[in-house]
Amino acid sequence: MFGYGRSHFTWNGTLRELEGSCPSCSSGRGRPRMTASPSSSSGLEVLLSTLQNAGDVESTLNILNVLDELLSAGTDRRIQYMISKGGSEALLTALVNTGRSFSPNYTLLLPLLHLLAKVGHRDRRIGVKAEDAGAALLTLNLLRHNVQHARRAAACLWVIQVFSSSVSTANLIGANHGLEDIYRLIPQYTTKHLHAIKAAIDAFAALLCTKANVCSVVSKGYVSGLLRLYEDWHGKGTQPAAVGICHSLLRCLHKVTHSTAGRQALVSQGGIRLLYGTTQTCLLGNGLESLVEPSVQLMRKCLPKTPLPLTSDRSAYSFPVPGRPHAVPEVEAEPDEKTEESDDEEAEDNKEPDFDDDLETDLNKLRTRPDPDRPKDLLPQYSRLCPELSHDFQELGLSSEPEESSTSSSSSSDEEDVPLGGSRCRRSSRDGGRSAASHDPEGHAAAAQLEPRDFHSHSSILSTGPSFRTKVREARDEAPACQREEAQDNDEKEEEIADESHHRTTIDRLLERHGACIPHHEPKLYRAAAAKTNSIPGFSILAFPDFWGHLPPPGHEPMAPRKPNIQRQKVFEDAQRFLTTDGIINQVVFDLEDSSLQCPSDSLRFFSKFECGNLRKAVQVRRHEYDLILNADANSSQHTQWFYFEVSNMVADVPYRFNVINCEKSNSQFNYGMQPVLYSVREALEGRPHWVRTGTEICYFRNHFCPAGGRRKTTFYTLTFSISFKHNEDVCYLAYHYPYTYSALKAHLKLLQEALDPATVFFQQQVLCGTLTGNPCPVVTVTACPASRGWRDMHQLRNRPCIVLTGRVHPGESNASWVMKGTLEFLCSSDPVAQSLREAFVFKLVPMLNPDGVVNGTNRCDLNGEDLNRQWSKPDPVLSPTIYHTKGLLYYLNSIGRTPLVFCDYHGHSRKKNVFLYGCSVKETLWQSGSAVNTVGLKEDPGYRTIPKTLDRLAPAFSFNSCNYLVEKSRSATARVVVWREMGVLRSYTMESTHNGCDQGIYKGLQTGTRELQEMGVKFCHSLLSVTKDVKTLHSQRLISHVDLDHSGLDHKSHTCFEDDEPPCVEEIEYSADCPAPEGADLDSDVNGNTASADEEDEDGDGDGGRRGAKHRRGSVGQSQPPRGRLIPHPTRPASAEPLGERRTPLSERRTPLSERRTPLSERRTPLSERRTPLSERRTPLGGVSVNGQMKS
Ligand SMILES: [Zn+2]
User: Fold this and answer.
1) SS3 for 137?
2) How far is the CA of 779 from the centre of ligand 1 (A)?
3) CA–centroid distance, residue 996 to ligand 1 (Å)
């Protein structure tokens, strides 16, 4: 409802209004035929029906006026309502009826076209409807007859623009030479008819939504023409209308360059240089700034594809996979960039025919348990992984402290032979299978016994990175390692071996002197653990941070503010590389595959050949700028994202720019405040062994690189950041996220075991299986030792529900390991909650499901080139042993009636903030998938929500709103879904921890550090108390003070789940979109600008401030007063005669009452127009924004 004049007006009132007070309607001649509509129809429907049937001009005009008033006063919802009532069809019918006459009545046609443009703009099916009504070509024809008549031409062009939202309509118009006709309407710079010129360019751009039209335009050579037009308009016009035209021209170029041929044409016609030049003038601040962004995006898009400077896209690391003739699979799946929606359980591809194709909508499939993937008789072998069930706890009978506790007596299992499935080889292929038998089970001793033999043996793993070794050599005389020296020797290798023992003692001394006390970390123990780790390249060097240890920095680290226009600036710098060679060095300074590489003495040094390391190549681009190329996942040629490398030889306080140029994810939290992490050796030696968030000028955008082989259609993204190092000649490490190596896990488990109280904590580390390279995959059992060996206590122990936690199936998600570290340390601690949890549950943890991937620095896969979290349906015992046996353990627990109460797989998420869970729910899946199944009578235990709800209360980083319980078919082979479906675990989750930080709670605006990640692991344990059936009887009341188990509301947060997590980036990152239109430059305002009055006055003064009130009668145009700035440079057809000229006076007179009635309405609209002030200002020069001259501007 809205006020209309003095009376109160409603939709149903429209008709009465029209009937009762409209003078023209009360005359018998103009009376609309209302009998056509049933009594139930709304006034609007009657109006529309009348519009289609009315034969006379006046009543039609009146209806159009009323409709226009209705629609322009309200919101879009009104127009949507009108569309739903057949408004578009009615207008199209009226257009066809009026327009196909030999001499159309333009008094009627013009408002009709205007209204159609406004309505059609909001009707997604307008194109199809126009075709059905025969209105598309009719409008094109009307345009052709009015090329000399700016106002009419503009109206036709807007309608054509609107019709072109449909591909078939755009093709139809294109096939009927619409493109040529419209292109010819676009003149060189002029100050006249800017409205119509803009309408022509916009219509042209709209027609370019189809492949056929783009091809046609490119083949006709229009790209060059459009570029010249842009240059011309850009050079001359700084007034808003001309800038609008520049925008429209850029939009045309954007559309044309969707095609390869279009991009090539733009480049060959000097488009990049032209855009680069024009953009530089834009930056001078002359009112053209708004053109910069679309120009830069156009440059970014059109920079010629450059293959990565690699000999092959395949990983530098390959490993002979059992059962495969070649280590390297021949055919690669082509990742489809468009499917990259969510991060983690990413729907990358559906290579194999999906047997669960309709999983999301089929209730039976959701509820049916698939058949087991293996025979039952294979399950008993897993009984050994349930030591708590067979352990006799004899030591509990002794009065004194047990000499050999339960834990230590059987805990040498991490040294035991690999019993299941996997390879027994403990050495990598390059290692010649050296025996592992010599290992001392005590890690401390091992370090002492190992001697340096050759560079690539594991024994020389006592070394740290080469740059650090140089530092140590410098520091040998106990002098601080800060003097600048000559570049390190290149005959390092020989020297190295002789150096080694000296190096070791120096490191020992450094440790004594500078080593920080890091909980659950022991450098020598780490070294010993690393010495036994198998890797494809046979790593012999430790990254210093892993060895020395990391402590979270004392304070919180806020997200990095995004510098305005940073992406634009970076793309601009990249375009410079294409246009000029000044200052461009382009020299390879690091190559993982070529250790003999010489590089200039003043360039940075890089190194990545250590556990978890990933950097394949570094190219010095400019003096202080480096392109970095990441190594694809082993045995694969994709999944590049994770990086971890050493950098040295830097000069302090100089901003170095790093560009990681072959990232594959389509967006990243690096665009939303996330920073990479840095570890400085110098800082560590001075007592600050911290990984810290670092880097400025960070941004992530699609680039022009393509794979070296050129086969895949991969799109690469650049992560760029700048770092000013604090110290000269430091040795630093940079990583995508806090590294956590496989060796760190092994060392950590050992230390945990040594630190815990074996009288209370039952802790067993066993080997689940060996990996492909023979690394043991640990599985840990944690529970409370029984109070006594009495029947009751032993019975309670053996009936504790199981909780199974897994993690790090995706190697690039190192945050998952830090969360797992928190969980493990808490579960083994003396905290009363931990004690209660141990008394309530048996925990089975597989902290690292993908050790091989982690060791070899892959991002997503195992050595098989497969995503292990897509193998759970039918895991291969040879190729995916860790998944096969974890699933086997779950089957076994199932078979002995000990199905886990909770299963959770820890992951990291690179594109969302906060920590959240994915769970499984039949009902929510059916709802969200739009299934037709009626869920009303469907019973489902809502218990799957308990843990997320509890976490929302307990864990500051956790966000309930980000949780989701959808069982998507694309996730049907993930751990979460398989454990839920096949094992019947109600609470089966994926936990996603952000790589960035939080946007809610007390950590809002902060990046997560390892402290917060570990805290999350602790809080997850806390939340498990919420699923104990009877907290009080099971355990003492002391828990209540620790954990508030109130399940009632969570009203402190709104529950708008499932919405996208990211606000739009300051700068557009949706690269496929057209260049953004300047604010307010919408079709409506353009159309409104054309309806200054219903009279068809001609405005030759389009550009000179408008001529409101000038009432040249239309009849003079094209005859006595040819337009000075012509809309049409090459008139092709004569304008049609205007026969209705003399009828106009009485008509406008008759309309007067209506205009009068409109007055209050226009007044009401004033605040709106005030809000739109910039727009109105822009419109002013176009001559006549005002409705009836009453709008203030
Ligand atoms: Zn993951």
Assistant:
1) helix
2) 19
3) 15
Map residue 462 onto helix, strand or coil.
helix
pLDDT of residue 761: 95
Higher pLDDT, 1034 or 284: 284
Residue 1057 pLDDT exceeds 90: no
Q: Which has the closest alpha carbon to 302: 338, 260, 336? A: 260
Residue 986, C-beta contacts closer than 8 angstroms, at least 6 positions apart: 941, 943, 944, 980
DSSP string, 156-177: HHHHHHHHTTSHHHHHHHHHTT
Whether residue 531 is predicted with pLDDT greater than 60 in this model: the reply is yes
Of 186-200, 957-971, 1003-1017, 1052-1066, minimum mean pLDDT range? 1052-1066
Burial class, 35, CB count within 10 angstroms (exposed 0-12 / middle 13-18 / buried 19+): exposed
Please report the pLDDT score of residue 471 as a whole number: 66
Cα dist. 635→328, 1035, 1121 in Å?
6, 51, 76
Phi, then psi, of 890 in degrees rounded to 5: -65, -40
Q: Among 698, 884, 679, 915, which residue's Cα sits nearest to residue 818? A: 915
Quick check: 665 and 625 in contact, CB under 8 A? no
- Note the helical H segments in 414-491: 443-449, 466-474
> Which among 973, 976, 978 is positioned nearest to 965, based on CA atoms?
976
Residue 606 DSSP symbol: E
pLDDT exceeds 90 at position 565: no
Q: Which of 238-252, 570-584, 896-910, 1179-1193 has the lowest mean pLDDT?
A: 1179-1193
Torsion of CA 351, 353, 359, 360, to 10 degrees: 50
| Calpha distance 646→439 (Å, rounded) | 29
Write down the pLDDT at residue 1109: 35
Burial of 794 (0-12, 13-18, 19+ CB in 10 A): middle
Does 1173 score more than 70 pLDDT? no
Helix/strand/coil percentages in the chain, nearest 5: 45, 10, 45
Q: How far is CA 231 from the centre of its chain?
A: 35
pLDDT at 619: 96
- The span from the CA of 1168 to the CA of 733, in Å, is 56
Helix, strand or coil, per DSSP, at residue 60: helix
Please state which of the ranges 8-22, 548-562, 939-953, 985-999 shows the lowest mean pLDDT: 8-22
Place of tokens 């911290």: 690
Q: Is the pLDDT of residue 1056 over 90?
A: no
Share of the chain above pLDDT 90, in %: 48
Q: How confident is the model at residue 195 (pLDDT cuts 50, 70, 90)?
A: confident
Q: Is the pLDDT of residue 24 over 90?
A: no
Beta-carbon count within 10 A of 934 CB: 9
Closest of 710, 738, 713, 724 to residue 642, by C-alpha: 738
Integer Cα distance of 231 and 223 in angstroms: 12
Question: Contact, 896 vs 380, CB < 8 A?
Answer: no
1163 is known as an active-site residue: no
Q: How many residues does the chain have?
A: 1193
Distance 868 CA to ligand 1 centre (A): 10
Q: What's the rounded mean pLDDT across residues 866-871?
A: 93
Determine the distance separating the centroid of ligand 1 and the alpha carbon of 910, expressed in angstroms: 9
**Which residues are 917's β-sheet partners?**
991
Q: Give distance in angstroms: CA of 359 to centre of ligand 1.
A: 22
What single letter denotes the amino acid at residue 301?
A: K
List pLDDT tens digits, range 770-782: 999 999 999 999 9
Helix intervals (H) in 532-659? 544-548, 566-579
**Separation of alpha carbons 782 and 786, rounded Å:** 12
Mean confidence (pLDDT) of the chain: 76
* Per-residue b or e along 739-764, where b marks 16 or more CB atoms closer than 10 Å to that residue's CB: bbbbbbbbbbbbbbbeebebeebbbb
Q: Which of 683, 729, 992, 1138 is catalytic?
A: 992
